[in-house]
User: What shape does this take?
Amino acid sequence: MTMKNQLIFTLLMGAMTFGICSCDNDEFLDVTHYALLDEAAMFSKDENAIKGLTGCYDLMHRRGSYNDDPYKYWIFNGTHPTMDSQASGWDKDFMTQNWTADNTELLHFWQQSYACASRCNDFLAGLEKAQGVTEQAKRYLKGEATALRGFQFFALANTFGRVPLLLTGENFNNTPTKAKASSYEEMWDFVIADFKEAAELLDWKPFDGQSFNDNPKRTQGTPQYGRCTKGMALTFLGDAYMWKAYTCPDKAKECYQLAYETFDKVIKSGEYELSPSFSTLYDAAEAWPKEAIWQVVLNSGDKWSTWVDNDNAGARGWTGFYFGPTSNGAWGTYQMSWELYDSFENYLDGDYEGSFDKRRDASMVTATVPAELRKDHPTWVQRVKPTAAWLKANAQYCRGYKKVNDTAFVFDQSEYDNYKMEPEGGNGIYDPKSPIGYNPFNQEFVGWCGFHWASGDPAPTVWSSKHWRNGRGTDWSTGCLWLPDHIYFKRYANVILDQAECAFRLGKTSEGWDYIDMIRERAFGNLEIGKDFSKFVEHHQKVADFFGDSDGKGDAVDLDGYPFPFNTESVKVPSAEEYYTQVKNEMGYKSDVWLVALGQERRKEFSAEPYLRSDLHKSGFLEDHVNTVYPKNTLPTSGPEVITQWKTARNFDFKMEKMFMPIPEDEILKNPACEQNEGY
Assistant: This one.
């Protein structure tokens, strides 16, 4: 078992998992490759101790084969149980509650988390007795190691519920057997204590890499983004208080108050702000924006043509294959539901004419779906029309446009009417009457109607573009631009919506609605007005040039500007209370309107991110969400009939008791003091 192996502090080379990014920004964790250090040498001086801490961060990185990494589990468990993201094959188990104690992803996640926590424990124990490390260095290094350990147990707790707690100096080498925390209160108090202490020890800016001896006054140099900070510790601390409130109802009011006070510190710090455009959050032109509180940026480096398990190329393979559309050779195992796709607001007339939620097109793409295939779908509405300039530049891609000469195209109704959708693709045509299916990053045309077939399972032809949007992630033969993947463990939007929930639960109703409306103003593009987005436009043009048809390297759409036009004038946005009162009545939710609003906004904001399931779970909204949006039905789970429904087949009873995953079977066998969770 990985976590029971002898732990040695290894040091990463070059750029580590956290903060790997070019992005015209050198403010990232960058360390040199060193030989292994024994404990005496590691704690002989500040410089070596700083290097030793890097060995703790090392275990945030993937360890072996492409399946043996934490990111797949975080992202799959982050959304699949909500049914908003869907897959085929064995990955589908995460959306149908068919996971079992021998699930490979569960085991790898467990092993990886405990290996990192154990290494932090060894480091903290050595730091306590270190004679050659200054007190200033001890304070900061202890803060980072404690926060990192807290993060691992936070992830374990919201996944498995109660787990064995390893204290400073303990690992599965010297403590091979240990029982689970006796109660949820003990479990969450342990996590809370770590983040609380870390927040007191750390600064808002990440460590700058300078020696404490060389810089005794700790004047801030270049921060190494990716390291734990006060903001990271406070954000997870507030989240931990909310989880304790959920699992310990008798402590709920006290915990929500503590969470509210904690998030208030983050909000008032001035360190973070919402990115003005939701669309740019996942672009390669920027990493660690002001919205990022804690983020992983995976990089393909210059290894695009190989897939070496322990190489950074694994990051590229991971994003390309798990998230890439199948027409690009990817597995397409991260598709989004049509129910989520259809949930975004778009107003064609009335008081809010022209207003629409831009998060849909900024976070997911579809196969080409002609309008007539969905015209009777009750939630379908005409989507945003392309600009005249776009059509002029790209008419050759569009259904119904007739070529006049090499530069001129005109729309011809008969050409439009005569165009036939090929059942298995073969065309990448944009339908000007139905922008459903328009993929601004590549011309995507997979699937039969609304579903793609793989391993006998139908999955929606809707792919998340959050982790795949900077080129063809699986183009082995022709090369690849730098292809990062942004994994936001926490961003400022998480804090805003968590604070909204705390406000509602504490009776601060008006404040709660204000926080939700703040997120919606950004979603509809009103924060974009007057901002400079030139670096994003320039980077996208590089992608389009590299993957365009002209050089034969791909099929990206060549755009003069950014795929999603930025707002130049403000639009009217319905208040969350107004809109979600209507949604609650129409859909029949059992929850309070504010909880419906909060849950829906989290779905739209955090799809394909690590903590959507966690947020819906701890708020008590998850069961209502699944039963309302994805009711149990008799739709076939395979066969061509399912594609005519444009909705998800569900043939299982949703059980909240299964939402804490089973302890891995391997751990039960090797640690007899650890009992299996109920229901397994």
Remarks:
- Strands lie at 85-86, 292-298, 335-336, 364-366, 401-403, 409-411, 451-454, 457-460, 462-464, 485-491.
- The chain has a mean pLDDT of 78.
- The chain has 21 helices and ten strands.
